[in-house]
Amino acid sequence: MSFSRRQVLAGLAGVGVLGLGGTAVRYWLGRPHDLATHDYQLIAAPLDVELVAGQPSTLWAYGGQAPGVELRCRQGDRLRVRFINQLSEPTTIHWHGIRLPIDMDGVPYISQLPVRPGEHFDYDFVCPDAGSFWYHPHTASSEQLGRGLVGPLVVEEREGNAFRHERTLCLKTWAVDEQGAFMPLLVPREAARAGTRGRLATVNGQPRPVVDLPAGEVVRLRLLNVDSNITYTLNLPAAEARIYALDGNPVAPRGIPAKGLRLGPGMRVDLALRVPASGELALRDGPLRLATLRAVGAPAEASDWPAPLPANPIAEPDLQRAELLRFNFEWAASLADPADPVYWQINGKAWQSPAPGCAAQPIARLRLGGHYLFELRNLSQYLHPIHLHGMTFKVVWSDRQVIEPWYTDTYLLGKNETARIALVADNPGLWMFHCHVVDHMETGLMAAIEVA
Ligand code: C2O
Ligand code: CU
Ligand code: CU
């Protein structure tokens, strides 16, 4: 595959670095007057933030905040983002969960060249599905996601939805110490296990914030796990809440499981929360409080639960004629090079980072338009949120739980679990297929699937 640098400008002197009155600002985010076009200008650059009070940490931020600025688009419309790299290293943006053409998928050397410091790249694609999605780089992921390059992307339902209020809450636990200094983002012995865990849990970049919500109203909470390695076990004790969508795709509304809802890295849930008439609720990860949800204002009159969200236009796989492919996710025996550790593999192969000029060797080749059933086997005792680019799949079976099928881009494969997912291979390209525990994908648990 060859690439042109058509999007690259020589230098970007004067672009967005001078604010009104000539004051130097490090960021700007422009949105034109014509909202129908969903045009954004998004800069990635270092940003000093006090995650720990009085102790600035140098994060990497999209649009001057970490997690990054919320991008919004309407289902079926075109999202255009001029991305400007003001970091000191190359990067790209991947649009997690969006079914888009391969050249907009943001994987360096597979879908585009890396965007080097000072360069820009124009992302331009239609968002076919409504829901809660997100964006992040797809290179040096431990460092780049770990330092804050993650952000929400909300695609609004084409014909609207029954919610009158909504809030986006991005969950991330930072690997910083008491002085706000970054700790190692990938610790080899942790990467070989569940993944390196950060220390400071935050919601929208704030440790244990108080989030004000309108008293008595039903609010759509978009909870996004933008953390690199942690699977949160979400619960809201004593709250009236129902699950409306998983990973952007609607489900028949249901309660939160008594044991909590496990949300792996990269996964999202849309909840309907009935805010109490007064008082507070706790949003928790297991027993730990992540945020306080506080009812404010005069309580609204009780209303019904909103209607379910409309389904996304995803092709229905036909299980009768689907071809079965097997994928084993397991520990890698070879610990060859300590400088470039490999701890994980898929079907006996560990992914080597794509390099210039080398197209990846796909682990599977799918026929365009073909129907497929993937059997995912976890041969380890650690969780693997298995994610596929470019196509949305249907979860159909598991040996560990009764599956009421749903569509998603990520399936959280439990310890020693075997599960089956089905899809129609309707998007041509070379698509990444990987575990979204960043420590796992960085140490081998990644592959590419070709659809042609
Ligand atoms: Cu969030 Cu390869 O993806
Ligand atoms: Cu993705
Ligand atoms: Cu994993």
Question: Care to give the gist of this entry?
Answer:
The protein is mainly beta and 452 residues long.
Quick tags:
single chain, 452 residues, mainly beta, Immunoglobulin-like, 3 domains, six-stranded mixed sheet, 3 helices, 30 strands, 3% helix, 41% strand, disordered N terminus, binds CU-O-CU linkage, binds copper (II) ion, Cupredoxin
Provide the low-confidence segments as ranges: 1-34
> How many beta strands in the DSSP annotation?
30
Structural class, from helix and strand content? mainly beta
Main sheet: strands, sense, barrel: 6 strands, mixed
Strand content: 35-45%
Provide the helix percentage.
under 10%
Hetero compounds? CU-O-CU linkage, copper (II) ion
Sum up the overall morphology in one term: globular
How many structural domains?
A: 3
- What is the CATH topology descriptor of the largest domain? Immunoglobulin-like
The termini sit apart by 14 Å
Round the Cα radius of gyration to an integer and report it: 21 Å
| CATH homologous superfamily designation of the largest domain | Cupredoxins -  blue copper proteins
Count of alpha and pi helical runs: 3
